Amino acid sequence: MHGTSLPGGPDTQREASAEAVIAWAVREFGPWMAVASSMQDTVLAHLVAKQLPWVDVLFGDTGYHFAETIGTRDAAELSLDVNVVDVRPELTVAEQDAKHGARLYERDPEQCCAMRKVAPMRKALRNYEAWATGLRRGEASTRRNAPLITWDEKNQVVKINPLAGWTDEQVDAYAAANGLIVNPLLDDGYPSIGCAPCTQRVEAGADKRSGRWAGRDKVECGLHA
Ligand code: SF4
């Protein structure tokens, strides 16, 4: 692990503001920190870029995204002081289909996510000492105890979750106050946005992640759990 101490114990971490956590991370890691973004919104990228202009923003370009998500990625690149890096799998969708059969996401989404999301991001993170993610405790039961800062054993980097304690309302308010682009699907019945084949609309008031891998036990792609 990078030779540093985290800013305070767990209790202090729970209290720290997103800006304070990012300031600490920028001091510790500077350009050796990246931001991960699913392009659901651009709040975290904007927050980090304010303190670390032209930070690398890693976008997991699985080949299965909605057009709206790619549009959000392009708008982020044009409107923010960030360097968007497309993190792509080893195989194109066509190559994966030829090797593993079409629609692997239907038959084995764990393997599909492992090849198209988890492995490419792990490889990309070898270039950094830390990554900042938009993980929030209120998003899912699997994220209820997400710390602000932790050691990411799987990826061998420090993991920073500056928005861990933020509510949906705080995210929306920050995006509105700063005129940030958000994925238009958020206003079209998709409160949580992943790859198109594995993301469905949800009814108003339903669990926000219930449209992800709907009908399966799977709730995470493997990047965060
Ligand atoms: S979310 Fe679906 S399409 Fe995307 S990588 Fe995972 S299984 Fe494949």
Automatic annotation (TrEMBL):
Single GO molecular function: phosphoadenylyl-sulfate reductase (thioredoxin) activity
Cofactor: [4Fe-4S] cluster
List of catalytic residues: 221
Reactions it catalyzes: [thioredoxin]-disulfide + sulfite + AMP + 2 H(+) = adenosine 5'-phosphosulfate + [thioredoxin]-dithiol
Residue ranges of coiled coil: none
Gene name as annotated: cysH
Subcellular location: Cytoplasm
UniProt binding sites for [4Fe-4S] cluster: 112-113, 195, 198
Function text: Catalyzes the formation of sulfite from adenosine 5'-phosphosulfate (APS) using thioredoxin as an electron donor.
Keyword annotations: Cytoplasm, Iron, Iron-sulfur, Metal-binding, Oxidoreductase
Limits of the Phosphoadenosine phosphosulphate reductase domain: 31-200
UniProt-listed Enzyme Commission number(s): 1.8.4.10
Pathway where it operates: Sulfur metabolism; hydrogen sulfide biosynthesis; sulfite from sulfate
Species of provenance: Myceligenerans indicum
Family membership noted in the UniProt record: Belongs to the PAPS reductase family. CysH subfamily.
Protein name: Adenosine 5'-phosphosulfate reductase
Record text on cofactor binding: Binds 1 [4Fe-4S] cluster per subunit.
